């Protein structure tokens, strides 16, 4: 061990005449540990929120959506779909028909976004159907066994868990679906309505979808919305989700004039921007804890220099130069910060890993979009926090170490 580090460690372990110096040193260590642990936990939470929201958004929806900029939808869509799904980076494509409806069951009702789908294609671009907890999506498969089914036989529909709770519906229950795109009669526009039977209830854990999404067969949606063989959107899944913008432009060129592509990043830009801003603000606010701890280090070292003035003078009279005295107190400050940083990292990572594994903090999904508080600790965050802690402590030791190096041996020993 180097001379300076040896003396610094001895000073930390030595019994002091002034107990308050030792108390402030202990408070400094605890303060650094608390600041580092708070930063690690806060960054783990913001990273977990970003990761889970992105995974659920990307998993539940397509990477790229292609639609017409004007008109009643995409007609003659089958040849276009076949051509587009063979473009570079496209893994799968699925047709869909969206429409806003009112779903009722007795006195209960709620708005919903209906999507008419072909289940086999839909499963290749999103995983909402894979999150069905009750029933199944099997009855959504297109069938030609009954070309003109009786209107008395309810058609199948799959709804989200929170929407089912709002309606008080379970698998097998009948729902009344009302479309605002009704029929024009001599008495005016009359909304079209049909009865559907709940065949499945999905629970993705993402409130936006569980509370307002429903799936039905594409042909049933076209009939409900009084559309011919038309779709409103083509969904794409890519081999690299971060190429969504580039692939979207390419699909627009292939599809021709009148088409516009959007992607998951554009649809959720404000959400991820807000999460990034929250992470930065959280880091700045909690870093103030480390700054306060560094001020405690400054006070502790200043008082220690005053206490050890005679020792410093003796060492200098034995040939220890000013730069070595300066390094002794620099090392002492870094030891205090280093011990606190290690303790903070251990506590912060232990708490983050426990929260990630046990998911013991539940959230209101209607507010936060997810039903538990996620944790995602990262090594790069630990390095950044440790660097912040050590640099702040180093700055706090500059004044005390300079004061120690400025001690004049003759003056310090004159009255001893």
Automatic annotation (TrEMBL):
Residues 25-253 form the MacB-like periplasmic core domain. The keyword Lipoprotein applies. Residues 284-404 form the ABC3 transporter permease C-terminal domain. One of its GO terms (cellular component) is plasma membrane protein complex. InterPro entries: ABC3_permease_C (IPR003838), Lipoprotein-release_system (IPR051447), MacB_PCD (IPR025857). Keywords: Cell membrane, Lipoprotein, Membrane, Transmembrane, Transmembrane helix. It is found in: Cell membrane. It is a multi-pass membrane protein. The keyword Repeat does not apply. The chain crosses the membrane at residues 20-45, 280-306, 327-351, 379-399. One of its GO terms (biological process) is lipoprotein localization to outer membrane. Belongs to the ABC-4 integral membrane protein family. LolC/E subfamily. PANTHER family: LIPOPROTEIN-RELEASING SYSTEM TRANSMEMBRANE PROTEIN LOLE. This is Lipoprotein-releasing system permease protein.
């Amino acid at each position: 061990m180097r001379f300076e580090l040896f003396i610094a460690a001895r000073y930390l372990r030595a019994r002091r005449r002034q107990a308050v110096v030792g108390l402030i040193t202990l408070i400094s260590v605890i303060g650094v540990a608390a600041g580092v642990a708070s930063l690690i936990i806060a960054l783990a939470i913001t990273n977990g929120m970003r990761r889970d929201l992105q995974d659920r958004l990307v998993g539940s929806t397509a990477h790229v959506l292609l639609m017409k900029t004007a008109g009643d939808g995409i007609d003659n869509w089958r040849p276009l779909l076949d051509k587009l799904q063979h473009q570079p980076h496209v893994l799968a494509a699925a047709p869909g028909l969206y429409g806003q409806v009112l779903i009722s069951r007795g006195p209960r009702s709620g708005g919903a976004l209906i999507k008419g789908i072909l289940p086999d294609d839909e499963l290749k671009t999103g995983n909402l159907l894979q999150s069905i907890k009750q029933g199944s999506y099997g009855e959504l498969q297109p069938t030609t066994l009954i070309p003109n089914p009786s209107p008395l036989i309810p058609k199948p529909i799959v709804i989200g868990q929170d929407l089912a709770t709002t309606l008080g519906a379970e698998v097998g229950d009948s729902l009344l679906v009302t479309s605002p795109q009704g029929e024009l009669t001599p008495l005016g526009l009359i909304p079209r309505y049909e009865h559907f039977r709940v065949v499945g209830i999905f629970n993705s854990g993402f409130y936006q979808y569980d509370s307002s999404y429903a799936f039905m067969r594409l042909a049933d949606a076209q009939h409900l919305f009084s559309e011919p063989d038309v779709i409103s959107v083509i969904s794409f899944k890519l081999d690299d989700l971060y190429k969504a913008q580039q692939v979207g432009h390419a699909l627009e060129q292939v599809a021709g004039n009148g088409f516009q592509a959007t992607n998951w990043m554009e649809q959720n830009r404000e959400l991820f921007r807000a999460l990034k801003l929250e992470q930065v603000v959280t880091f700045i606010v909690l870093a103030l804890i480390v700054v306060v701890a560094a001020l405690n280090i400054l006070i502790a070292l200043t008082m220690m220099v005053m206490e050890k003035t005679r020792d410093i003078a003796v060492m200098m009279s034995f040939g220890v130069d000013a730069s070595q005295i300066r390094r002794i107190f620099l090392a002492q400050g870094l030891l205090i910060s280093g011990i606190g940083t290690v303790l903070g990292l251990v506590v912060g990572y232990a708490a983050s890993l426990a929260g990630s594994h046990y998911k013991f903090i539940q959230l209101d999904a209607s507010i936060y979009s997810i039903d538990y508080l996620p944790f995602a600790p990262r090594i790069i965050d630990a390095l950044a926090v440790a660097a912040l802690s050590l640099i702040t402590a180093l700055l706090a030791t500059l004044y005390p170490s300079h004061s120690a190096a400025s001690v004049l041996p003759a003056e310090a020993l004159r009255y001893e």
